[in-house]
Amino acid sequence: MTIPGNPAATCRDAPLARILIKFFVAPAPRAWRTLQSMRVCVLLATLAVTGGFALSATPALASSNAATTQSYVQDNYALVRVARTHLATAEAGPLHVLAQVRAECPRAGAGSPQNPDSTQMSDEVIAAMVVSAYKPDLSAMRTFISAAGALSWGNHGLTTAVHGYVADLKTILSLPTPNLCGDVKAWAASGYTTLPASTVTLVAKFMPAWVALGYLPAQLGPFESAAARSLARRSAPLEEALTEGEARAVEHWGAIMDTLELWP
Question: Exposed, middle or buried, 10 (CB in 10 Å: 0-12/13-18/19+)?
Answer without folding.
Answer: exposed
